[in-house]
Records
---
Amino acid sequence: MSRLLLVSNRLPVTVKSDKDGVSVVRSAGGLATGLRGPHERSGGVWIGWPGDVSRLTPPQRASVEAQLAELRCVPIQLSASEVSRYYEGYSNQVLWPLCHYFIERIPRQDRDWDVYRKVNERFADLVARQYQPGDTIWVHDYQLMLVPAFLRARLPQARIGYFHHIPFPSSEIFRSLPHRNELVRGLLGADLIGFHTHTYVRHFSSTLMRLLGLETVVDRVEHEGREVRLGAFPMGIDAQSFENLAKEPAVLEEVRMHREKSAEQRLVLGVDRLDYTKGIPRRLVAVQRLLEREPAWRGRLRFIQVAVPSRTGVEDYATYREQVDELVGRINGLYGSVHNVPVHYLYRSFNEKQLAALYRAADVMLVTPTRDGMNLVAKEFCAARPDEDGVLVLSEFAGAADELGDALIVNPYDVEGMADALETALDMPQEERRTRMRILRARVKEYDVHWWVRSFLDTLEATPLAPPRVEPA
Ligand code: ADP
Ligand code: G6P
């Protein structure tokens, strides 16, 4: 196995500071878990941003660096202006909305491109400094779309992979970006470009044809004398670990408490980052519609929506939060009583055990993004149901819908249809719930995050290296 250099905007760690000092702890996310094994075994490093450490004292910073080095992480520091323009600006106010089809949310003036470009170049410089011949480089996600080409210019012989964790939109959407050609050329610096679904691969191929006149033959495209491969690698989760968590006695005790509190009620669950792509307002209105048209459900249904604060420095996220707050208030005002409220809205992060307990306690899980590259929450819910119960209601616009066809698939723009699906889920006979959940679980367990890492890296390792440049005599 060659040494693996992983590159992502965020390092897979969280820096915590309290009265006892600073500590660097590993994150629990899917990417971090899936790549931990290959990262440690290969003896490589992970390069990325450790988050805002500007308020730490110099000795605290030194301690963070030492702890990061122990975890084989190489930090890149971002200035306040870079955070605002590269991360919040171009990454999250241009590329994020564009790839999720929210083209109207993009600022009128494209002011942050230069900083995005510069930070991508800085990432590439840092990676090149860490590189040793024979290493494999794996770059992750939309914040770093230019890194593969910057790396190719610095390391013509290197093996470089890139994975796009969010949707790749239709070429009709993508080509509205002023810097569309640079971005696509940026990706073409890689030997292998991975997406979650075949639809995203198809959109990317059409974009290459429309913008650069490049034709994809099966899964390959020729660019500047090199062959670039494209592929669909649907990301999975650490299914075994979620299943184990969901069987722990402490988690089962929490499940019992959730259920006891609502013995007469059915529990409906939503778990998301608070992001406007997640479709929370329409989901809330669908719950409201069911209560409106079927009075028998009033007082018998408890909807818990867990929302983890995200990108709070970006204005659209603040506005979205207000919208959600207002809707929750409206529905509870209309359908609550002195004994209970229909919507329990929790704006905070939960640990994996708490999440597993909620997943296992839920009768119905609502995963209804208007667009989502994959959506791992849907898979976590299935993994946490060794009891083979619970119904998943899933948006057709989540990448996960390609794999999880035995969920109740809904159009998240069709509120009435979602209210129907919720009712169907609540009334579903146990036998049908079990049959569906068995199939969903088999898929999630077989195609887990370890399968994903293996299949991407095996394909990358099998790509022929770029031919050496022949200098004219
Ligand atoms: P995205 O990558 O857009 O956030 P995913 O569903 O693919 O969406 O992944 C979200 C991850 O964040 C999941 O692993 C999920 O467990 C975690 N997560 C979501 N909501 C919360 C929360 N309230 N607290 C803690 N973790 C959360
Ligand atoms: C999505 C993106 C990731 C990103 C994550 C959290 O999953 O694909 O690249 O890291 O959201 O967002 P944040 O902006 O907090 O890193």
Note: The chain has a mean pLDDT of 95.
---
Amino acid sequence: MATDARPKVFVTRRVPARGIDLLKDKFVVSQWDREDRIPPEELLRGVKGVDALFCLLTDKIDKDVLDEAGPQLKTICTMSVGYEHIDISECKKRNIPVGFTPDVLTNATAELTMSLLLATSRRLKEAMTAVEDGSWGTWNPIWMLGHGLDGATVGIVGLGRIGLAVAKCLLSFGVSRIVYSGNSQSKNAQEVNAEFVSFDYLLEHSDFILGCCSLTANNMGLFNAEAFNKMKTSAIFVNTSRGGLVNQDDLYNALKSGKIAGAGLDVTNPEPLPTDSPLLTLSNCLVLPHIGSATEKARSAMSELTARNIIAYCHTDDDTCVKQL
Ligand code: DGY
């Protein structure tokens, strides 16, 4: 019986069809074709002998996975812009290129960041609860007041692709000032008139503080008690980056004690956030289940770009677009 000479790819989850359709032509595709996270032992089984791995941010791709895959592994491509789940230095050592999916989810994630910002600043969680539990009395001039974006100072930690897209949205809401902090100045800051400031300055002067940077070993727990203590008591904190940026106990204390006014989180640590998390008891904390890029368009484009990255790495004759780290 003739063997199939096409390279092999393993896909670690059920993903939008676009990517799989592209791969099927050129690869022997095997897949954890389910909506739940692949168990570690199934991941080890699946990667054995493949040429390419199509993975997600929920998969820990470490030395063990690379060893189990074997030396023929040509690429690891994640259907995400974040890649902290992949042992990049181990991949570099082995000359395995890592693909990711920047750009195609920028607008969706910026949109969700704005949704959280607007929802928390205008206290939508409390307002909806008031409707549902009957504590909505009558229209009241001094009830349920929030802080609008008009005239506000917004601090963006990480003015990368997503931070910049959020800044562009903010301008149309009439914010008076955008400040940002990060490892280095952004070449795009001028487009949105954003000022590069120290992290401390940003904390002290911003009405809204947005976590838009990627998670690294250096900024784990960046938003801790010390940071929350520097914020205004009217400050709203929004995080759509990674939960690891935040010390959640410290955030809880800051919100509970009124040290800051509110928080909107699309990302937590761990995920899913346990339903008994104290954060969920707070009316001034809105938590979403990591849906920043969850639009049909963005997820389909992420699936397609991941497949195109794989094709480009495995078929040198095919110069489809490559988004490599
Ligand atoms: C990513 O891609 O890293 C986001 O967190 C999910 O789309």
Note: Residues 57, 80-82, 105, 292-293 surround (2R)-2,3-dihydroxypropanoic acid (CB under 6 Å).
